[in-house]
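When time allows, look over one protein, given below as sequence and tokens. The question is which stretches look regular and which look disordered:
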Amino acid sequence: MGCTLRVGGCEGVIVETEAYRQDDAASHSFRGPTDRTRVMFGPAGHLYVYRSYGIHWCVNVVCGPDGRGEAVLLRALRPTAGLDVMRARRGGIADRLLCAGPGRLTQALGIDGTFSGRALGDAGVTILGPRAPVDVVRDRRIGITKDVERQWRFLEDGSRWVSRPPSVHATRDEGKR
């Protein structure tokens, strides 16, 4: 949260994520490595990109130790550079919606399945550390039917750039990230 994701000349500050790990029935890694999910099992710092419902690309950053399927889904960014390119890719929608949701984010940044397995730093994909601490709200993840009670959706508190506002289940996270 609060880090800058840069892909080519486009970038934005990460304002919303969701966590997934192998003991989580909602995770693609839950049943163990497959051809599609092998990248989730390490090493950390690689991208796991998949198609959701056969329509939208979604990008995750692998974050667990080798052998354990863990990744963080990037759900929303506050766009900060390359907005003209993002607007063209997204068909001229309002700036607030350019990267508000995992499918919108990948479309705006030009991320597709060819990015899966790439290490951060390859092909112009980087994550730069946060410039300042961020107040975080924890909430239930979106669009899942298993392990729904886990509060593994993280949102920048008060951000207008998130895909959806916090639900009634949301809680303030302790400290800043």
